[in-house]
Amino acid sequence: MKNNISGVGAALVTPFDPKGAVDFKALEALVERVIQGGIDYLVVLGTTAETATLTEAEKKEVIACITQVNARRVPMVIGIGGNNTAAVEAQIRAFDFSAFEALLSVTPYYNKPSQEGMYRHYLAVAEASPVPVILYNVPGRTGVNLQPQTVLRLASATDRIIAIKEASGNLSQAAYILRDRPEGFRVISGDDNLTLPMVALGGDGVISVAANAFPRMFCRMVHAAQQGRTAEAASLHLRMMETVDALFAEGNPTGVKAALAHYGLMGNYLRLPLVPASEALSRRLADLISQYELE
User: Fold this and answer.
1) Is 45 helix (H, G, I), strand (E, B) or coil?
2) Phi, psi of 217 (to 5 degrees)
3) How far apart are CA 99 and CA 108, in angstroms?
């Protein structure tokens, strides 16, 4: 299957207004900002979008808004996942993929399946999907770790599975996948501050939270790394890293929404059970953004 997924994917947040409704004007501005900032593709309705709190009607409206603003300038990836395989299959079969290049699907959460269970789950997802599938491993959120052996087994089992977003925080784990992956299989960082070392090992970029807040600088760093300009990439990484760490100090998208509010791009509103960043974190982010002139 075709694989256009490389470089920087922006895991878009969903802006809300003071009454809790989706702020579509802010969403339009955000999409334009990250595209102008140099991102290579958009990730729609991922974890960072607070998708679990959106109604089905809101999801359709968010997709329509992003699709219209993007106007096919960059590829788009849609997030569809869950811990009920049959329900995920049904959702995929009912979905209109005409605007999307690929599907990002998180490992089943809460019920903690075995490696064999996850293997069979992803084969079912791939069979149901008309577009290529990106595995998404994020043990800190799901309670289960998709092991390298299982990733490689899936990558070899079907050409419908084209990549993994690896967010275990374990660079060694990613390195084993990079070493043994079949030709054409992409390994994408799911941790902003591990992007540079992963690209240095041969990784294929990042699906980024930080790219919402300071897309120009973050994209410059990733693209420099991909093009072998290591010193430039390292300098940019070191300039951004403390702020990136701060973005996740109280969870995601709590920190990045505080940063976006500091830039004046949207209000600092989240849906329960998430709450806005503390005053201390908001001040710290504002200070770091100013100190390191992040854009």
Assistant:
1) coil
2) -70, -40
3) 25
Write out residues in the chain with pLDDT < 50, as ranges.
1
Q: What is the Cα–Cα distance from 178 to 245, expressed in whole angstroms? A: 25
Domain boundaries, the chain: 7-228
Q: Which long-range contacts (CB under 8 A, 24 or more apart) does 62-70 make?
A: 62/14, 62/22, 62/27, 63/99, 65/24, 65/27, 65/28, 65/31, 66/12, 66/27, 66/31, 66/42, 67/99, 69/27, 69/28, 69/31, 69/32, 70/31, 70/35, 70/42
- Give the per-residue pLDDT at 267: 97
Predicted TM-score (pTM) of the model is 0.96
d(CA 216, CA 38): 6
Angle between helices 215-226 and 24-36 (to 10 degrees): 30
Active site residue 112: no
DSSP state of 278: P
Query: Catalytic pick from 41, 119, 122, 136?
Result: 136
> Tell me, what's the pLDDT at 22?
98
The pLDDT of residue 263: 97
Sequence-distant (≥ 6) Cβ neighbours of residue 97 within 8 angstroms: 78, 103, 129, 130, 131
Q: How far apart are CA 262 and CA 67, in angstroms?
A: 26
CATH topology of domain 7-228: TIM Barrel (3.20.20)
Location of structure tokens 């390191």: 292
Please give the pLDDT value at position 4: 73
Residue tagged active-site, from 165, 176, 257, 292: 165
Contact (CB, 8 A) for 66 and 60: no
Task: Identify whether 119 is a catalytic site residue.
Answer: no
Rounded to 10 degrees, what is the CA torsion of 157, 158, 162, 166?
Answer: -30
Length of the chain: 295
Reduced to 3 states (helix: H, G, I; strand: E, B; else coil), residue 25 is: helix
Q: What is the pLDDT of residue 2?
A: 55
Residue 34 and residue 198: Cα distance in Å, rounded? 22
